[in-house]
Design brief:
Strand content: under 5%
Radius of gyration: 14 Å
Shape: globular
Distance between the termini: 28 Å
Number of domains: 1
Number of helices: 5
Order of helices and strands: HHHHH
Amino acid sequence: MFGFGRDKAYAPTIPRYCTSTGHNFDRECYDNIDCDIDTCVSWYIMSHFANKQGDQILSSTAHKYVGRKLLYNFHDIDHKYKNLIDQWDATHNEFNGEYPKNMEKKLNAFRQGFTNSGHKG
């Protein structure tokens, strides 16, 4: 799998990464993408948006993992926001597109969902 798989060599541990909410979203990201590759798009855009806001939701390892999975599976992914990302962005792990409407509201709802569930990473 060219080092893109979730094996011990690539992601040996899930780091205890604190965001402004004090939660670790790396595990959810890895598990979600492993179950449904199409979710790479959501994680990619959401992670870039959070970084732009100055509040990372993923560690740098997980952020890179999402970008590599997106790039490696780009032609197989079917997601309504995939058109916002081009292969150049995925290759350079950047996002130069326009964020979906209400992105801040969606990101806050995502964070709130984990806060209310009692998830502590």
